[in-house]
Amino acid sequence: MKLSQLLKTLRVYQTTKDINHVTVTGIEMDSRQVTHGHLFICINGFTVDGHDYAKQAEEKGAAAIVADRPLDVSVPVILVRDTSRTMAKLANAYYHNPTQKFQLIGITGTNGKTSTSYLVEAIFKQHKDKTGLVGTIQMKIGDKEYQVKNTTPDSLFLQKHFAEMVNEGVDTAVMEVSSHALDLGRVHGADFDIAVFTNLSQDHLDYHKDMDDYLRAKSLLFAQLGNGYDATKPKYGIVNRDDPYYEAFCNSTSQEVLTYSMDHKGDITAKDVKLSASGTTFTLCTPSGDKEITSPLIGKFSVYNMLAAASAAWVAGVDLETIQEALSTTKGVSGRFEPVLAGQEYGVIVDYAHTPDSLENVLETIQSFAKKKIYVVVGCGGDRDRTKRPLMAKVAVNYATEAIFTSDNPRSEDPESILRDMESGVEEGTFKTIVNRKEAIQYAIEQAKDGDVVLIAGKGHEPYQEINGVTHHFDDREVAAECINDRTQRSYRD
Ligand SMILES: CC(=O)N[C@H]1[C@@H](OP(=O)(O)OP(=O)(O)OC[C@H]2O[C@@H](n3ccc(=O)[nH]c3=O)[C@H](O)[C@@H]2O)O[C@H](CO)[C@@H](O)[C@@H]1O[C@H](C)C(=O)N[C@@H](C)C(=O)N[C@H](CCC(=O)O)C(=O)O
Ligand SMILES: Nc1ncnc2c1ncn2[C@@H]1O[C@H](COP(=O)(O)OP(=O)(O)OP(=O)(O)O)[C@@H](O)[C@H]1O
Ligand SMILES: N[C@H](CCC[C@H](N)C(=O)O)C(=O)O
Ligand SMILES: [Mg+2]
Q1: Is residue 169 a known part of a binding site?
Q2: Ligand 3 centroid from CA 462, angstroms
Q3: Which of 107, 108, 110, 115 to mutate to test the pocket of ligand 2 (most atoms within 8 A of CB)?
Q4: Which of 42, 43, 114 for mutating ligand 1's site (highest number of atoms within 8 Å of CB)?
Q5: Residue 274 backbone phi and psi in degrees, to 5
Q6: In the chain, which stretches have pLDDT less than 50?
Q7: 85 labelled binding-site residue
Q8: Which residue's CA lies nearest to atom 4 of ligand 2?
Q9: Partners of 256 in the beta sheet?
Q10: Which CATH superfamily is domain 3-94 in?
Q11: Residue 308 CA: which ligand 2 atom is closest?
Q12: Which residues form the Mur ligase C-terminal domain (predicted)?
C-alpha cells in the first residue's frame, strides 16, 4: 500500500522526508519482527521504549517509521502526537476497516466477560452464523483456535485478525474488552455494534488510580459505540441494571441502551430462578415473549451471564427459540466452576475467581448446596492490585470451614510477602498458609470427607505458574486429580 494513501487516515502529522514514492508491505510494532518494506511504529511501553529500536527496525528494512519525536535514521519518519492511537488508526486503514464488515459485540466489566463471551458465541453458532471470538483463553475464527497473550490484544494484532475474520466469512464476532485495552487504545477504531457491561467491582488498582479511574476506562467501550461510523447502522448498549454502576454506563453512550436484571425492572429479566448443584432453571422474559431455560451452568452469577448474552442476541434479532436452545445446551467454560471428577466422594471445583467479588459469588453458590465442610485454596497474583489481597482473604475466611492461603502467580514478587498482604485482612488463627500451591491443594484434598467441597480458586484454565519470572507448567485440575488419585490409591493399600 502507498504510505501516502495510508496516512490519509491521520489529520495531524509531519514527515521528515518526501514519502510520495514510499510503499509499505505491512505494519509492525516490534523491531524484531520487521522485514523489508514494513512501516515500524515506535510505542513507548511499560518496559522499554520502542523509539530505542528504530535504528534496528531500519536495519531490518523498515521503509518508514512512525514516532512521537525526531529520530536519527535515514528512512522517512512520520511524527505524530500519540503513536499508540495512531497505530490503531493505521492498522484499521491498512486492513480496510474490517470491523465494519461483520457484527462486533464487545463485553466489558470486572467479572464474567469470558463466561458471557462463550454464551454469545454459542447463541450465534446456533443461529448458524460463522463466529469469531477474542478473549482471555484464546482467539477463535470459526473453530480454528489461536493463542493470545492478552485478553484484549493490541490494535495491530486485532485489526489483522479482524481482517482474517472477514476473509473467513465471519458474520458475528464477540470479544472481551479489558480496561487496560480501553485505556491504552487497543480497540480504538473498532466498530462495535453492541457493547455489553457485566458488572464492576474492585480489581486492577495497580494500573488504575482508583475505582473512578477504573470506571472511566471501562465506560470508554460505551463512549466509542457508534463514534465516527455509519449513523444509520443501529448500535446498542446492554447494561446490568442490578449493578451499582449501571447508570454510569447508560450515561456513557449516546446510543440506545437496554437493561437486563434479576432484581429490578429491566428490558430482559429472569423470573422463577431455581439454582441447584446440578444446574439452573429460569424464565427468560423479553419484550417479545418468555422462554423457559434449563441450563447446566451453576450459580446466580451464571444467570447474569446468560441474561447478558441473551440480551445481546435478542437486540441483534436472534429468535427466542435459538437463544433458548443455545443456553440450554451450553456447558461451562474451561476453568470456570469446573469440577474435577476422579471418582472421589467429595466435590473439587477449580475456578478462575481472582477478585473479591467473584470469589464471594462462587463461595455463596457453593455454600448454598454444600452439605458439609468447605475448603478454599486461594492465592493472589504478584505485580497486580495489592489492595485486593486482604479483601480476597477475608471473603475466603468468611465462607470457608478452612481457608488455605497459597501462591497464585507470584511473578516478580516474593510469594511470602504476597501472603503477608493476604493475612493482614483476617484474624490470626482463622486460616492456614502453605506457600507451595501443590502442597496446599494436596492438604485440602487430604482433609475432605464425603459431602465436603474443595474450591481451588484463582487460576482456572491457566496451565502455568509464574514464579520469579519463570513460567512452570502447572494446572490446578491436573494437580487436584493427581492428589485425589494418590489418596485413593493409598486408601486401597491401607
Ligand atoms: C502493562 C501492559 O499492558 N503491557 C502490555 C504492553 O507491554 P509493554 O508496554 O511492557 O511493552 P514493552 O516491552 O515495553 O515494549 C514497548 C514497545 O517496544 C517494542 N520493542 C520491544 C523490544 C524490542 O526488542 N523491540 C521492540 O520494538 C515492543 O514491540 C513494543 O511495541 O504491550 C504488550 C503488547 O501489546 C502487551 O502484551 C503487554 O501486556 C502484558 C503482557 C500484560 O500483562 N498486560 C496486562 C496488565 C493486561 O493488559 N491485562 C488485560 C486483562 C486485564 C483483565 O483481566 O481484565 C489484557 O487485556 O490482557
Ligand atoms: N457475572 C459474574 N459476576 C461475578 N462473578 C462472576 C460472574 N461470572 C463469572 N464470575 C466469577 O468470576 C470468575 C472469572 O469469570 P470470567 O473468566 O468469565 O471473567 P472475566 O471478566 O473474563 O475475567 P478476566 O478479567 O480475568 O478476563 C469465574 O471463575 C467466576 O468465579
Ligand atoms: N486478567 C487477570 C488475570 C489474573 C489471574 C490470576 N491468576 C493472577 O495471576 O493474578 C489479571 O491480569 O489481573
Ligand atoms: Mg476474561
Answers
A1: no
A2: 10
A3: 115
A4: 43
A5: -125, 115
A6: none
A7: no
A8: 358
A9: 236
A10: MurE/MurF, N-terminal domain (3.40.1390.10)
A11: 1
A12: 335-460
Ligand 1 neighbour 52 (Cβ under 6 A): no
Which pLDDT belongs to residue 227?
76
Count how many Cα atoms sit within 13 Å of the Cα of residue 437 in the half-sphere of its side chain: 26
Looking at the domain that runs over 98-329, which CATH code has it been given? 3.40.1190.10
| The predicted structure's pLDDT at residue 228 | 67
Residues of the chain with CATH 3.40.1390.10: 3-94
Closest to 38 in 3D by CA, of 46, 49, 53 = 53
Residue 233 pLDDT: 79
Distance separating alpha carbons of residues 306 and 300, to the nearest angstrom: 10
The answer to whether the CB of 389 is under 6 A from ligand 3 is: no
CB of 462 shorter than 6 A to ligand 2: no
* Cα-Cα-Cα-Cα dihedral sign, residues 142, 124, 249, 96: positive
- Which amino acid type is present at position 182? L
Residue 270 confidence (pLDDT): 98
Q: What is the CATH number of domain 338-493?
A: 3.90.190.20
pLDDT in tens, 305-336: 999 999 999 999 999 999 999 999 999 999 99
CA dist., res. 37 & res. 45, Å (int): 24
Residues of the chain with CATH 3.90.190.20: 338-493
Q: Cα(430) to centroid of ligand 2, in Å? A: 26
pLDDT in tens, 94-136: 999 999 999 999 999 999 999 999 999 999 999 999 999 999 9
The best mutation among 107, 108, 110, 111 to test binding of ligand 2, ranked by most ligand atoms within 8 Å of the C-beta, falls on 111
Residues of the chain with CATH 3.40.1190.10: 98-329
> Ligand 2 centre and the CA of 415: distance in Å?
24
